[in-house]
Amino acid sequence: MSPFQRIAIAIAGLLGASGVAAAAASSHVGATLLGPYALIALTHAPAILALALAPLPRLFDFSLAALLIGAVVFCGDLAARHFLGASPLPLLAPIGGLALIAGWLLVIVAGLFSRRC
């Protein structure tokens, strides 16, 4: 297993655990920013884990990287806005969202153009 895969698996675990905590906080406390955080974290953690563990062609590494970056940036921005009251940099959530969209589009490209899958 490569270091990139190990990092991806660790981030998937962090997203999963924090997503469950955010979902609980959102439902019990009504924290509005934590609902979208939970949704993105809990939907992308298994996808990241699957891409990191599956014996896929290297082309899928680009989609994995984009999904990792996108999920961390998007969730990080929402968490910062919830806990700090403001985002450290404007437009981080939309940039993270664009990276997530790019990651999923790269899954399509990798699936269509990889020699073995």
Describe the protein in words:
The chain is an all-alpha fold. The chain has one domain (3-113). Helices cover 80% and strands 0% of the residues. It has helices at 3-29, 34-53, 60-84, 92-113.
Give a quick rundown of the structure.
The chain is mainly α.
**How much helical structure, as a percent, in the residues?**
over 70%
Number of strands: 0
The topology string of helices and strands comes to HHHH
Helices and strands: which structural class? mainly alpha
N- and C-termini, Cα separation: 18 Å
Biggest sheet descriptor: none
Q: Rg, please?
A: 15 Å
Model regions low in confidence, pLDDT < 50 over at least 5 residues:
none
| The number of domains | 1
Instruction: Tell me the overall shape.
Output: elongated
What proportion strand? under 5%
Mean pLDDT figure: 93
How many distinct helices?
4
